Structure prediction request, 1098 residues.
Amino acid sequence: MKKTTRQLLSWLAAAALGAGMLTGCGSKAADSTNAGTGSASSNTKAGGENVVTFSMSEDVYTWDTMGQPVVPFYSIQLLIYDMLVRTDHQGNYEPGLATEWSVSADGLDWTFQLREGAFDNTLNMNFLWSDIESVEVADPYTAIVHCKKPIGDMLNQLTYMPMLPAQALAEQGDDLFKSNPGTGPWKFVSWDPGNEIIFVRNDDYWDWGDQKSNVDKIVYKPISEDTTRVSSMRTGEFDFISNIPPDQVEVLSGSAGVVVDSQPGTTITWMALQSSDNKTFADKNARLALTHSIDRQLIVESILGSGSPSYWPVMKGVTGYDEASDGKYNQYDPELAKQLLADSSYNGEEIYFMAIDGKVPRTKEVLQAVMSMMTEAGFNVKLEIMEGATFVSKRSAGEYDLAFSNVFYNNGSPWRHMITHWLSDSCNTQLENPQITALLTQAKETIDLTEQDKLLKEAFTLMMEDGGRMCYFINLDTINAYSEKLSGVKTYNDTIVDLSRVMKN
Amino acid sequence: MQNFMRFMMKRFVSAVIVIFGVTIVAFALMRLAPGNPAALMLPDNATAEQIAAVEVKMGLDKPVVQQYIIYITDVLHGDLGTSIFFNRSCAELIFGRLPATGLLTFAAVFVSILVSFPMGIISGIKKGSAIDFGSMVFALLGMSMSQVWLGLLFILFFGVYLGVLPTQGYGSFRNLILPALTLGLPLAALVTRMLRSGMFEVLQEDYITATKARGIGNFEIYTKYALKNALLPTITIIGMQIGQLLAGAIIVEQVFGWPGLGSLTVKAIHMRDFPLIQSILLVSATLFVAINILVDIIYVVVDPRMSLN
Amino acid sequence: MKKSELLRRMGKSKFFVIGAIIAVLVILTAFTSPLFVVHDPIQSNLRNRLIPPELFANGMSGFMLGTDALGQDIFTRLVIGCRISLLIAAAGVLIPACIGTALGAIAGYFGGAIDNVIMRICDIQLSIPTMVLAITVMAIFGNSVPNLLLVLAIVGWTSYTRVVRGSVMGIRNAEFIQASRVLGASNARILITQILPCVLTPLIILMSQQIGFVILTEANLSFLGMGVPLPQPSLGSMIADGREYIATAPWTVVVPGVALMIIVLAFNFLGDGVRDILDPKNKD
Prediction:
């Protein structure tokens, strides 16, 4: 029966081999998107190739440029696509694929002069906005966009609306986004979901000028764990990372070869207040009690170590910011909070405060601290941090008292947030303020930024005095880190990063 | 031989029933969960009509039973469906992750066998000795450490203090070491105990004393009789654990950032990605059942005396 | 087994003794905690963040084991968290034990189709990975202690069913059972008064071995954020909270981790000891 033992061992070996082959077959079964998994971790010149690897917290989930983008997608788009208009993210615009533009006096017609050049993009702008009437191609290099109403945010929107090759789009439809053909400085190669995305340099790019990158390949790896991203930065596996927890800043600053790049950001965190009848926050006193009970400064200093308290719906650098009013509202005043709460109709009912993880660094800690502060003012709070699906469905149904989230204002424009949550009521707060709505609607159709700014300031003042629909909490800093070997990296305060001209030694 | 074929038929039939059962459970569970995958895909301000339109596109508007039948029919044609969230075929996603999971599983089992076999066998033979005591302590410690705790300890020690091993990711052999140890050592603890008690029990049997009296050497007794008997329940346990591990060691993947099936599953559940979750569970259940059948075959091959019931 | 024999075995088993002592100590500390804890376990005080353990420097009113990221005293949270974990563990063992025993007894006693159905359900459940099932259920029903117990029940019943079924199948045709049937006793009566007592031994052994496992499962779930809900402390969530600070403030992870390990170890020792004592094959 030694034979049986041998038989047994050979069965085991066969099973192990079989399992190995199974998994090996698995990797062949996945189509070519698995290129380069083995070499991805090495960042040095593998076989003479200059590779830059960068990491942010989320993976792209849809390549459809009209889909709901995750934050990293804005940066990725800059690699593979060209936009009509470019921006310095301070509210200034430069020519991209459009060399010049003008708008008619009534604001309804925008005329764009297009760059003559080596690419074959007949104009096809994938507009889904309801406010666009039509796009007219006056001649091969001139396009006129006819709008139903003046769009104040037009240029900003165009800075992240990529140009797609018209014919391919017509032929392939959604399948176009499996190969993502763009005219940008980098070409999309492959996407291994959850693992990595690979781009190679487009040597035929029309606009390298004298800034042509010496990097051959860019790899993007999504890593949702902040500390993991940081430790990989330190070991040299990544050349660039974003979203760094503030206390890791010191650790990283001390690491050899790492540059930490921190700037005040345009991401704001906020809570939506459920204000339908009989709910606690239908009462204005309760809303104001809430905002005065929170010591934003202490949270910024002790838990976050970065960022700044939000005393206004937008921060410096965003249209509608009012320096004079910054510091007037939302001040921490526990006595006032208790007083307001006592004056309100609140009777100790449980306040259901819900959130998902990740909207602010150290979500659990920050929100528990907020909960503690609210408890001191007299609120009875139940905090629940849940997963995204449940959160979204509860929020749209209005089944909450407080719902925590964040938003980032890109390129100095507050409009995405204002449209979604103030002109529509996506959080189903049921708090109506006709004055605010009227001011915002008017501002949205104002093309002149100075005028827009004035109208927004008025609207925002009303928002602060009313205490709802949102309680604005903390402005987050934008903190990135990258290797000393890199140059030509452009980081912006709205967390978007432009690696298209990166150089690596 | 006929008995064996009948046995295999029975096992196969029950395997199919189990797999079907799993798909039904998966289907039912996901539909019970609050949260609409169509709503999750669209921006915050999507209207009810827009959401409804996406639902139709995903086939979510049909009655549940019909959705199930459509799904099963597709599966039988080899189509595991398309992931809502990633917008690619589930098969591609799942089999794309299997290498990482497979590698980790293999490494963990390898570590556990390497560690547990010598310890378990020797302590079963020399019960009461110092080695035995040492193994028992090791085994109990291994069972008492949560994977989280063990993993974090490794990270603290090897990653932070000593800085010699990478603590996340997937790419080189060195990335594999810590996760494999974190998974493998608790498994080793379990296997050590099984082997030890198995060996010891067999060696207590009367027929062993009789065999010794006949003059058969110790080594032959240990391997030919004791080990063989002790191995069988051990293999069952290892088989079951492999089944679970192939489904993705969720905790270890979280702690070490290992891109395996487990983290894919967690993401899918969070996004209510019905097709993906169903297919993941289908594939895991199939693998699990297949391994169990394999274990059964090994049993029969090794010990034809065993009843085939 | 006679009482004297039981006591003799209890004394002889090293595992039992050590396990029992530690377990009793832990339980006592956890449940007398309201008497001696000084700090509030869930009130955060941001000015006291991440203070290293002071041990006995300030006595009981200091931060003996340090504070966590929210300024809460770790020792207090540890002790309260133990209590919560132990309560959940007790329920998490008893509930599946009851369900599993009932199902196992029915399956083993009646056999046939009922047995087949119950065993198939067992198989189906075992083919779904534990963690995946747990996460899905928590995602569906939300994060709360009753739901956590539900998850533990769902995950745990199968072991008991199998063990009890095996036991019952062994004795269902024994002479004394047949005698009862002849005398006209109903099935229910036989099950409850005669079969269950025989099943007790393997059941107790299994239960004592499962305690450690249940505590670990709860800790793992809490680590993933799917266990004991905020702001109640639990050993698992304390480890999760401290994880970020592992390099800068390791005590936030090490203290709950070591505590968890000791508790589970104690119960595993206990479980082994109980098995040694009650196992008739053990001639010690």
The mean pLDDT of chain A is 81. Chain A touches chain C through 25 residues (CB under 8 Å). DSSP finds 15 helices and 21 strands in chain A. The two ends of chain A are 65 Å apart (CA to CA).
